[in-house]
Automatic annotation (TrEMBL):
The keyword Repeat does not apply. This is Chemotaxis protein methyltransferase WspC. It comes from Novosphingobium sediminicola. GO terms for biological process: methylation. TPR repeats lie at residues 346-379. Residues 1-241 form the CheR-type methyltransferase domain. It comes from the Bacteria.
Amino acid sequence: MTDTRFADLLERVMGLSAATIGPGAIERAVETRRRETASRDTEAYWALLQASSAEVQQLVEAVVVPETWFFRNPQAFRAMEGDVLGPRLRADPLASARLLSLPCSTGEEAYTMAMALMESGIAPHRFSIEAVDISQPAIDMARAGVYGRNSFRGHELGFRDRYFDPVPHGWALREEVRAPVRFSQGNIFAPGFMAQAGSFDVIFCRNMLIYFDIPRQKQAIAVLRRLLAPDGTLFVGHSEAGLMREEGFVSAGMAMSFAFRRAPEAAIAAPIIAVPARAAIRPVAPKRAAPARMMERDRPVRQAIAYPAAAKVPDLATLRRMADDGRVEEAERGAQAHIRDNGASPDALLLLGLISDAGGQGKAAAHYYRKVLYLDPGNVEALGHLALLLRREGDHAGARLLDERMRRRDERSS
């Protein structure tokens, strides 16, 4: 019988869902720490964990594998500077900004936030960056500010000459970049986490939520909502975009940045799911009964009522606005007619997938998302929504494969 005690412990301590990384990763971390603590067997190591909070932290360190580098997913940093903070700070010489990097890992993300603003002419004294991570060794490395070759990827490395000095075994970050960044160790699930921190104009929280189960995701998002200023911007990972829409955030409309803002309070009870071209679909509440029409919707591909052949079919942008306005069935019929008249396209199929997903028809949604990926293998919206759908249905292995595809795509684009 599989020993789930260690996975349960990690879930309690750090919210980690074992299914997202696989039990093998936890078993390897446990075995590594067992050997390093000279525990004779797993029972002895389990007893040590019960007696030592410091060893629990060491196990967390063994499980958390940071994968980060400077200017990872550069579109987000360009959006942060060019669309969010830069215009406001340049328009008002007395304005300042507060930013948060969570989790900050070994500091590359937080320091990139600083460099991106400095590159645009914003002086370091006009912004401050809080950087928080559960791993104390990661925080120590970030504070040291010395980085090896793996932290510098891609072809645009001019920033390294401008902000780093070569040292043995790497490059040391200059003080002007380090000054506005403050690092601290913390756990987002700890009681009172950052209770006195105030609000932030920009939060980067990328590729953390995907490792939590649904209750922990909701708990973490509630913390992020509390920390985000009413007009602030939250940047997440590509595979987390669908989750943010489900939780009532709205897309900031910045291409490839995965930036979101808090929805108006009145809209939180009816979260939206965004679609391309900055449109959105409001989920349809299911009926209590299960009439024949609902049974029809359970088929892999739903057959919407045919759009009149003689009628002019609206363009896809109009159909998206229809869906956003709650005219979901009309938008669905129009998308089907658009495919009938013009052939299948990634945008039309994606719209049908999102409509099905919002209506709780997972099988139909997955069918459409896969059709999108057949036509456009790198479609970020389809990859992210299908990964989230698979994860909700318990197919964590399938979701991880899609996450990996998105990660490789990001590396190529950066």
